[in-house]
Amino acid sequence: MKKVILTYALPDEGMEILKDKVEVIIANEGDPNKFIDKMKEASGIILRFGTMTKSAIENATHLEFISIVSAGFDHIDVATATKYGIPVLVGAGANARSVAEHTIGLLIAVNRKIVPGHFATISGIGWQDKNPDKSFELYEKTIGIIGLGSIGKLVGTIAEGLGMKVIGYDPYITKEEVEKLGWTYYADYKDMLKIADVLTVHVPILPDTVNLITMEHLKLMKKNAIVLNTARGGIINENDLADALNQEIIAGAGIDVFEKEPVPVDAKILHAKNIVYTPHCAAMTREAISNMTKMCANAALAILNGEKWPYVADPKVYNHPRWKK
Questions:
Q1: Identified catalytic residue from 48, 97, 217, 232
Q2: What is the pTM assigned to this prediction?
Q3: Does residue 62 carry a catalytic annotation?
Q4: Per the residue annotation, which of 102, 202, 217, 280 is the catalytic one?
Q5: Which of 108, 145, 111 lies closest to 231 in space, CA to CA?
Q6: Residue 261 is a catalytic residue
Q7: What is the sign, positive or negative, of the torsion defined by CA atoms of 65, 66, 67, 71?
Q8: Residue pLDDT, tens place only, 199-240
Q9: Is 280 part of the annotated catalytic residue set?
Q10: Of 179, 261, 287, 307, which residue is the catalytic one?
Q11: What digits encode the pLDDT tens for the residues 153-202?
Q12: Is 214 exposed, middle or buried (0-12, 13-18, 19+ CB in 10 A)?
């Protein structure tokens, strides 16, 4: 029976899938470099929490897969894994609904000043400070979505249900596919920024998406625009966003992810005006965790059975000689 290491035990539904099919070793540690001896014997590793560095991958000489309870994979050295033919199995789409709902929740919280309103009510001043010019109805306003994968599409669908107009940019999706959804396609996201009342990003953090939105881009937007990021920190330049808010270049922001997590308490972004923060928890619902848990466990078993699991960080991994046998 092949050995599979779990950095931490999975929720019950995941453990049940693995039961009697593999020998499970629970490390209770997120850094595989701290249990190298176990890694050398493992056929795979499932990361509920943790990282996978170049050295950890190279020291795991029998490794057949890396499975993660997450849709994002910036904590994994994917390039090294691909070099050795080790697929990084991701929970693509498993948390989409939860992240999409959280995104719209941030939009409403920012736009309707719910957080400051809460504290103003407690302090007794909320009854006097009710300026209608600070908020707008979402009906017939335009939401611009960068990244029209499973999350971006759900955000668009929910926004459409609120009566919003949806416009989108995604270099991997055709104009015809976007227009089939009834939305407007933009080949250049800079053009989209000029029109959007709300901007939300739903792309992975990659070399070409770092600083995708900077001050240059924020200056293209309307003064009453709202910017949202529930994808990954670094896609929107944090310092530029803070400056844009403090200088009233845009009106507000809702942020769930940060360039460094936990975010340092002295970070400029934490001292910006008109912003609502959450601690990278958009995917933290019972349903999303259950979906991702079952997906990563089933993916692990599929790889051990010689199947090519479709949801991987880098599809080129299957071009490796070990997959041509």
A1: 232
A2: 0.89
A3: no
A4: 280
A5: 145
A6: yes
A7: negative
A8: 999 999 989 999 999 999 999 999 999 999 999 999 999 999
A9: yes
A10: 261
A11: 999 999 999 999 999 999 999 999 999 999 999 999 999 999 999 999 99
A12: middle
